[in-house]
Specification:
By secondary structure, this protein is of the alpha/beta class. The protein is built from eleven helices and eight strands. It binds 3-methyl-2-oxobutanoic acid (KIV).
């Protein structure tokens, strides 16, 4: 467990049928805790647009903001692989722009890989980035940057044509040289089929138990973000309640002049 997680190692984990764990991280303190606990991948997700910045979706997140958060996460990790999420419009406009922005994540922030949404339409772009030595994780199914095209966060791949398109997307990422694919918001059976067809690992979120790994947004799984809780989220803790309790104790102790005590004061 102490060994540094690398891109080739993740592919070998699939071959050995070892499940891969991935959680989002957006700052130094969380990165240290997640890394210390032994998670394999720290994803600096553009989900920070919702859970950190308070936006309704991920579309307003910029490259500079992602670089800022990625730098903080990189400083906090020793073992996990840090993957930076390419925000809206940082990779869709042209392969050249995508290469430059992917390069910024590696050069300016110290990320070891980038993630981008899209399959077949992004095949050329992924191949260019990978061809220049930068590992790419794909992301297909319910891709949040396309929320307006989907008309909301709706499960994708229930109809035959959608199902086939998502399978083609996943295969296109593997063909382009991607090292892993996030499968988001698709039926468990489809995720199982894709996982069986690919030689690179699939990382599921709302995609059932048969993916090669699982990812969750850290604020969701710790119960820190409760604006909405999707069905696929398991809350492993209720930290909002714990925090509220601590903060209320602080407020009442200050008001009642119980804090600071002598042990917190200087002579
Ligand atoms: O932005 C993000 O956190 C993600 C994961 C949910 C896969 O893309």
């Amino acid at each position: 467990m102490a060994e540094k997680v690398t891109v080739p190692e993740l592919v070998k984990m699939k071959q050995r049928k070892e499940k891969i764990t991935c959680l989002t991280a957006y700052d130094y303190s969380f990165a240290r805790i997640l890394d210390g606990a032994g998670v394999d991948i720290l994803l600096v997700g553009d989900s920070l647009g919702c859970v950190i910045q308070g936006h309704e979706n991920t579309l307003p997140v910029t490259m500079d903001e992602m670089i800022y958060h990625t730098r903080a996460v990189v400083r906090g990790r020793k073992r996990a692989l840090v993957v930076a999420d390419m925000p809206f419009l940082s990779f869709q406009v042209s392969p050249e722009r995508a290469v430059l922005n992917a390069g910024r994540f590696l050069q300016e922030a110290g990320a070891e890989a980038v993630k981008l949404e899209g399959g077949v339409v992004m095949q050329e772009t992924i191949a260019k980035i990978v061809g220049l030595g930068m590992p790419v994780m794909g992301h297909v199914g319910l891709t949040p940057q396309s929320v307006h095209r989907f008309g909301g966060y709706k499960i994708q791949g229930r109809e035959t044509d959608q199902r086939e398109a998502i399978l083609r997307d996943a295969l296109a990422i593997e063909e382009a040289g991607g090292f892993a694919v996030v499968l988001e918001g698709i039926p468990a059976e489809l995720a199982k089929e894709i996982t069986g067809q690919l030689t690179i690992p699939t990382i599921g979120i709302g995609a059932g138990a048969d993916c090669d790994g699982q990812v969750l947004v850290i604020h969701d799984m710790l119960g820190l973000f409760d604006d909405f809780t999707p069905k696929f989220v398991k809350r492993y803790a209720e930290l909002k309640g714990v925090m509220m309790g601590a903060i209320k104790s602080f407020i009442s102790e200050v008001r009642e002049q119980k804090f600071p005590g002598k042990e917190h004061s200087f002579k």
